[in-house]
Specification:
The protein has 242 residues and is of the alpha/beta class. It contains five helices and seven strands, in the order αααβββββαβαβ. The protein has a single domain, classed as Zn peptidases (Aminopeptidase, 3-Layer(aba) Sandwich). The strands form two sheets. A five-stranded mixed sheet has the order 1-2-6-3-7, with helices on both faces. The structure holds zinc ion (ZN). The site of zinc ion has 4 residues, from loops.
Length: 242
């Protein structure tokens, strides 16, 4: 049930967003969430076992596109590469955007979970294992579950729901690729934009909220250290000239 806890907050945030898309207070019966939960969990495991690297997320995107089309969303795929924009119009009101990422990381999963990723693919650095160790599989499952609940509860809200699936978050170029491809010109410009991320520092069942920008930028540094060679295991042998 731990993934269910991740789905609940998203729905709660959507219904509680300041004056956003709300025609009535939150009124989703938890039994509705329990009813869709097995399908959401199945999606999570499928995505977890089939991770794809940045800009290679073709299967991942196709899986989500099929799901959202079946729910009646107006779906555009291939935005900024493999990105998706799914719109659900539900009368006048604000535009609320909810984002998920699509990509996984070039790292081997060593959790020994029965559904652990064994996927391998080619990257610029050669053949590599791939896994969703950043949690984007969980984000996608919660995003798809939210999509389903918002359709089933459209009497409880009004406005436009804009679901965005962003490629290549890990290499910091998917968002700009989507914007260059018309994310905010070809589609409605959001009144509110919501993103979410799992966080191992929080206890299960705890949701933390941050207004405005949060972990919204990233950069990398190449550092060359001159000295005697050592590994992390033998780091006491490392000497760095002063
Ligand atoms: Zn992440």
């Amino acid at each position: 049930m731990k993934y269910l806890r991740s789905l609940l907050p998203v729905v709660a945030v959507l219904f509680a967003a300041p004056s956003a898309a709300i025609g009535a207070p939150a009124g989703i019966d938890p039994s509705q969430i329990n009813a869709i939960y097995p399908g959401v969990e199945k999606l999570y495991i499928d995505l977890h076992q089939n991770p794809e690297l940045a800009f290679q997320e073709k299967r991942t995107a196709a899986t989500l596109v099929a799901r959202l089309k079946a729910l009646g969303y107006q779906v555009t795929s291939g935005v900024g590469g493999t990105g998706i924009v799914a719109i659900l119009k539900n009368g006048p009101g604000p535009v609320v955007m909810l984002r998920t990422e699509l990509d996984a990381l070039p790292i081997e999963e060593k959790t020994n979970l029965p559904f652990a990723s064994k996927a391998k693919t080619k990257s610029d650095a050669g053949d590599t294992f791939v896994s969703h160790i950043c949690g984007h599989d969980l984000h996608m499952a919660a995003w798809a579950g939210t999509a389903e609940l918002m359709v089933k509860n459209r009497k409880l809200w009004h406005g436009t729901l804009m679901l965005v699936a962003q490629p290549a978050e890990e290499i910091i170029s998917g968002a700009s690729a989507m914007i260059r491809d018309g994310l905010f010109t070809r589609f409605p410009k959001p009144t509110y934009a919501l993103g979410m991320h799992v966080d191992h520092a929080l206890a299960a069942g705890v949701v933390s909220f941050h207004p405005r920008f949060f972990r919204a930028a990233s950069t990398s540094l190449d550092v060359t250290v001159y000295g005697k060679v050592a590994t992390a295991r033998t780091r006491t042998a490392l000497s760095i000239p002063s």
